Amino acid sequence: MKDRPSTNSDETSSNLEGEVDAIVEVLPGVSGPLKRRSKAEVASEDNRASLREEMHERKVKELRQMFDRHKGNRQLILLQDFPDPDALSSAWTYKLMAEKYDIQCEILYAGALSHQENIALVKLTGLPLQRWTLEMAKSKDLSAYKGCVFIDNQGTTCNLTEFILGAGIPIAAVIDHHSLQGEMNAEFTDLRPEIRATATIFTEYLQAGMLAFDSSISQHVKCATALMHGLRSDTNSLRQAQEEEFLAAAYLSRFYDPQLLNAVLQSSRSKWVMDAIERSLKHRIVQNNFSIAGIGYLRYDDRDSIPQAADFLVTEENVHTAVVYAIVHDKDEEIEVVIGSLRTNKLTLDPDEFIKEAFGQDAEGRFFGGGRSQAGGFEIPVGFLSGGNEDSDYARMKWEVFDAQIKQKLLDLVSPKDNPVYDH
Ligand SMILES: [Mn+2]
To answer: Residue 18 class from Cβ within 10 Å (0-12 exposed, 13-18 middle, 19+ buried)?
Structure first.
């Protein structure tokens, strides 16, 4: 659906594909189970590690070259509509790195900042963030911007993508840790699905000398704190962190402010989140260690309660994976979307694969969702059936249909024999 420039066969994009393959190839042995390793295995792991190092060095060099080419330009950094701490802190780091090259960046999001921790993060650190709705974007003079940048996303979760690319702004960079969502014609690409947080990738850039953090500069301390928060929040407080995240956290520990991080983490749950958790507890069904809950209608601004409810459900004994979904309605734009979040502790479950298999693709071949390690999400447009909820019977009927369809698709995967409709 997103209108992307068609892939051409220039050097940049063909190189890229090879690199993505190389990353995937490097992966499997890196995080295998603990066991005694043979000399050959150790040697091949060393080999893989040095390959990876080589690739990282090349990436930093390419990033510098891209910045050099854009010297004096302005760029737009596009975040997902509901940016999380990983995205926010990584975008801020990009902006600070780019300033060294006299490149001015605006960090944009089109949706809402609704998670209480994200609001606290932005307020307490003074993170420079702007909300641009599609309407606002249309009223801007975009000719000043010579590049756009996707960080912690690949444009598929950002409402501005189509418009910004349609306005002819080339993609300067894509830096992300989600699985590849589709071909993007970017000047610089660093996609590392094996890494748990985009903040890890940015901390590695810092360590490689892209920007020297100085603990006497308040903005650097705040940005380091934001990155630490980003790392933690994408790794379930480092419990799912790998070597790369621990190394990044060790580096950030020289600069970050633990008290500030504490203040961000102590922000409490809003009434709306408590309400969503309550509904998810009430409506959950648990089957084969999957906990599935449809929680009805939610206001657009409360959309972030969905992942928080999934975070909560996955803590139940004997549950390894939780999926929570709701119909989210945007009163201003009269649109409704089914939005869902998946959280899993099961290391062998790939959320990206699971969601793509459960829901498939739309008429244009676009998947309804995807994910990264241990988390995923989906968005299914309600389309023609949107609105009309003043009639509560209609609203209830509509929810029941969507709820049944989503449960059916999920349960087909969770326990293929079960069919919630015909078995009853
Ligand atoms: Mn992330």
So the answer is: exposed
